[in-house]
Automatic annotation (TrEMBL), chain A:
Signal peptide: none annotated. Pfam families: BPD_transp_1 (PF00528). Residues 1-10 have a biased composition (Low complexity). It is found in: Cell membrane. The keyword Transmembrane helix applies. CDD domains: TM_PBP2 (cd06261). Its main location: membrane. It comes from Streptomyces kronopolitis. The lineage of its organism: Bacteria, Bacillati, Actinomycetota, Actinomycetes, Kitasatosporales. This is Phosphate transport system permease protein. It is a multi-pass membrane protein.
UniProtKB/TrEMBL annotation, chain B:
Signal peptide: none annotated. Residues 5-247 form the ABC transporter domain. The keyword Nucleotide-binding applies. It comes from the Bacteria. SMART domains: AAA. The gene is pstB. SUPFAM superfamilies: P-loop containing nucleoside triphosphate hydrolases. Keywords: ATP-binding, Nucleotide-binding, Translocase, Transport. Gene3D superfamilies: P-loop containing nucleotide triphosphate hydrolases (3.40.50.300). This is Phosphate import ATP-binding protein PstB. One of its GO terms (molecular function) is ATP binding. InterPro entries: AAA+_ATPase, ABC_transporter-like_ATP-bd, ABC_transporter-like_CS, P-loop_NTPase, PstB-like.
């Protein structure tokens, strides 16, 4: 029997470029165009980023050299006139605290919902639930901001009083009445905003846990929760961290939602429930349009600090993930 | 620590698809029973009905009875989790918990079952690893991840993990198919030792392996693709390989199949 691949009746070899079958430089036009395109856009991207970095750093340096007070510790933001004094202490505090509150609330809840969708809910329920959560992730932040200002703020005084009753002694949760336009409310709102994305990413990771790891636990007589503890969570740990970082990135940089809910001031309150404070993004958004050239420089400098904080947070997360690599599911 | 399995009228489904039909057999305690048969005839499915793992698959459903001595595994009020603690399982692909150390892998089942003192745990882990012929290779790195071992070592680690909880029955689904001949031999020797203490059921595509390790052999077959698999016959391994009572068995064993 003859098959097309038998060596006796091969079709004649196609003509070659320069006599050699393998060593010839047979670069096709498509390859050349694609190479040029990809190399060109790579270089362009790097150049644009470098330009942005140079521009921001230059304007920041201008701002810092004009600042008559310590840029890192001053509790004020007065970047106009002949005696500008401004500092990021309040902004850094407000940004980190509100994001921390958001993470503490959102991550456990998101992981819980993700586990429910991936491992507990019947398929009839999990599909629509996933869909709704993905939809929520796409809601613009100004909508959350409006909802926060019109609904959340007026309805939080009950929770605030309760926190004051039971945790007021710590000082962090003392509440003197008044509108709930505090960093804590901002944290709650940010938590609600990042919940969908953290849930969504965690769910994807949990669904990817290899069957064989779950069956290993099941075959030992693990209950559903024990399967989750022994197989799903360890496998999903780095995914949960990545998901949290995605959420944290959004919380750190969130502008509109914070600006609509917070009543800003340049104070650091010991109680999270007292109104006032500010965040980097909110401060930039509220001041930028009225700022003069130097005022803009000052705001750019604060933006650069936010950027560095975000980088540090991401770097820390990568370190955590890398440290656990030896034990990750990838090696199995 | 070994019980007789008595299966009667067992059928298993994936949704509306019937994968195995009306199987009845007895598996003797302290012996090795091998399941052989062509791919897709339902060996794995049947094996997984013996520790109620089949119903974990979405749509998985079972009819019939599996008696472990005098307890029906599918009786009302029987907790599948408890069944899996008495009937252990080793899978085709080695699946140690990748995030756990070697020690923790072996101790995983024990920690599920109750609280042990540290020294007790150590003793049982050592005994199980010795039982799985792995102790000498890993005793200096018990705290290293189990996923760092070779495939054959990982499979023996999984066997150690399964026997650490002293099950009544040990089910093995092609435990050597991902291993080299030397690791395979190591596991076959191990099976020979383990049958002193456990009832063992092993699925294999390797005729020589079935002949080497098992006391009894069951041959499964299916009429056509899409049809449910059936038990053709079960008998002493020697008889199945020399003088089976059904022609299809002889055809399959001698390679004159299909
Ligand atoms: N998860 C599943 N969902 C639906 N059908 C399945 C599933 N697993 C197996 N089946 C079907 O059940 C039948 C028996 O499969 P099973 O895996 O038990 O065969 P097997 O004898 O173990 O085959 P092999 O020797 O290849 O492992 C096959 O027809 C298969 O298509
Ligand atoms: Mg199989």
């Amino acid at each position: 029997m003859k098959t097309p691949s038998s060596t006796t009746d091969l079709p004649p070899l196609p003509p070659q470029h320069d006599g050699s079958a393998v060593s010839g430089k047979a670069v096709r036009p498509g390859d050349r165009i694609f190479l040029g395109l990809s190399r060109g856009s790579g270089i362009a991207l790097l150049a644009i980023m470098a330009a942005i970095a140079v521009f921001l750093t230059y304007r920041s340096v201008l701002a810092l050299s004009g600042d008559k007070a310590n840029f890192f510790t001053t509790l004020d933001w007065n970047a106009s006139g002949t005696d500008p004094k401004f500092g990021i202490a309040v902004l850094a505090f407000g940004t980190l605290v509100s994001s921390l509150v958001a993470m503490l609330i959102a991550v456990p809840v998101a992981v819980g919902i993700a586990l429910f969708i991936s491992h507990y809910a019947p398929r009839k329920l999990s599909a629509p639930l996933s869909y709704v959560i993905d939809l929520l992730a796409a809601v613009p932040s100004i909508i959350y901001g409006l909802w926060g200002a019109l609904f959340l703020v007026p309805h939080l005084s009950g929770l605030y009083s309760w926190l004051d009753d039971y945790l007021g002694w710590t000082g962090i949760f003392s509440y003197g009445g008044g509108a709930a336009r505090s960093l804590f409310t901002v944290g709650i709102l940010l938590a609600i905003m990042i919940l969908p994305i953290v849930t969504s990413v965690s769910r994807e990771v949990f669904l990817q846990v290899p069957k064989m790891h779950e069956e290993a636990a099941l075959a030992l007589g693990a209950t559903r929760w024990e399967v989750i503890r022994m197989s799903v969570l360890p496998f999903g740990r780095s995914g949960i961290i990545s998901a949290s970082m995605l959420g944290l990135g959004r919380a750190l940089g969130e502008t509109m939602a914070v600006a609509t809910v917070l009543s800003p001031s340049f104070l650091i309150n010991t109680s999270l429930l007292d109104p006032g404070g500010g965040t980097f993004a909110q401060n930039i958004a509220s001041k930028f349009s009225e700022a003069d050239q130097f005022g803009q420089d000052a705001l750019i400098a604060s933006g650069l600090v936010l950027f560095v904080i975000t980088l540090l947070v991401n770097g820390a997360a990568r370190l955590i993930i890398a440290r656990r690599k030896e034990y990750s599911g990838a090696a199995a | 620590m070994a019980k007789r399995i008595d299966v009667s009228g067992l059928s298993a489904y994936y949704g509306s698809h019937k994968a195995i039909d009306d199987i009845s057999m007895t598996v003797e305690p302290r012996s090795v029973t091998a399941f052989i048969g062509p791919s897709g005839c339902g060996k794995s499915t049947f094996l997984r009905t013996l520790n109620r793992m089949h119903e974990v698959t979405p749509g998985g459903r079972v009819e019939g009875k599996v008696m472990l001595d005098d307890e029906n595994l599918y009786g009302s009020g029987v907790d599948p989790v408890a069944v899996r603690r008495t009937v252990g399982m080793v899978f085709q692909r080695p699946n140690p918990f990748p995030t756990m150390s070697i020690f923790d892998n072996v101790a995983a089942g024990l920690r599920l079952n109750g609280s042990y003192k540290k020294s007790e745990l150590k003793d049982i882990v050592e005994r199980s690893l010795k039982g799985a012929n792995l102790w000498n290779e890993v005793k200096d790195r018990l705290n290293k991840p189990g996923s760092g071992l070779s495939g054959g070592q990982q499979q023996r680690l999984c066997i150690a993990r399964a026997i650490a909880v002293e099950p009544q029955v040990l089910l093995m689904d092609e435990p050597c198919s991902a291993l080299d001949p030397i690791s395979t031999l190591a596991i076959e020797d191990l099976i020979g030792e383990l049958k002193e203490r456990f009832t063992i059921v092993i699925v294999t595509h390797n005729m020589q392996q079935a002949a080497r390790v098992s006391d009894r052999t069951a041959f499964f077959n299916l009429a056509a693709v899409g049809q449910p698999g059936k038990l053709v016959e079960i008998d002493e391994t020697e008889r199945i390989f020399s003088n089976p009572s059904v022609q299809a068995t002889e055809d399959y064993i001698s390679g004159r199949f299909g």
